[in-house]
């Protein structure tokens, strides 16, 4: 019994829940995250996406089980290895998804619930079709990152900056195509069955993935820089102004966070090309200490600028 419970937790992938922190982005940058009602709604949205994303991972592993058995790492997944019976996997999938739809409709709101339904539809479409279509497979994965950000806005009734949306698209593309690049490297290192484990891997030229990753990195840095310029349109506290020179009476404080993003993107590229460990973005974040420190430092600085300086 204990072993089955452990395997269920493994398949639910709690580590992947880090991606769902994206639902806090809209209220964070709007300066309303720590309003009690807003925070409660955003927290409910986070819990909701944890439930539905775990259901999606179960569904994905059920469909992928035959191919996962040919993968040097994924063959050890509980469903592929037979540690979780197929019938039990289906039951858990439906429990997660149905419970989340009920939870979100009762505790969050209509638009957020619609975003959950859209997530389920996209996840199913990916597992059944798009995962086998080159380029579209990564674009669909990236769309799920973007959907989380908008879902956070729906849940907390917070508008989303156009530049924040564009920055999210850039980061999502970088993570999705970086994941493909690392998958191809890992599969090629351990086995010659890349086409059997993931159909699209054999169609991705390294040069194409490298070009798209470079494009996504540049796009992310540019859009984030413009985003920081936009959201910095706010007054500085009078106490701080007294200590600043005249040319810095109304500085674009958020632009101070740009170096953290520059380093973070560069470090992620290093992980992709030198450490070959970007197959799982959340694993990279937790295991690569320089990147983890950079993300935490960026978050603290952003919070300080938005909530302490005005």
From TrEMBL:
Its EC number is 2.4.2.45. It is a multi-pass membrane protein. It is found in: Membrane. GO terms for molecular function: glycosyltransferase activity; transferase activity, transferring alkyl or aryl (other than methyl) groups. This is Decaprenyl-phosphate phosphoribosyltransferase. Keywords: Glycosyltransferase, Membrane, Transferase, Transmembrane, Transmembrane helix. CDD domains: PT_UbiA_2 (cd13963). The keyword Transmembrane applies. GO terms for cellular component: membrane. Gene3D superfamilies: UbiA prenyltransferase (1.10.357.140). InterPro entries: UbiA_prenyltransferase, UbiA_sf. It is an enzyme of class 2 (transferase). The chain crosses the membrane at residues 17-35, 41-63, 84-103, 109-126, 133-154, 160-177, 208-227, 253-270, 291-309.
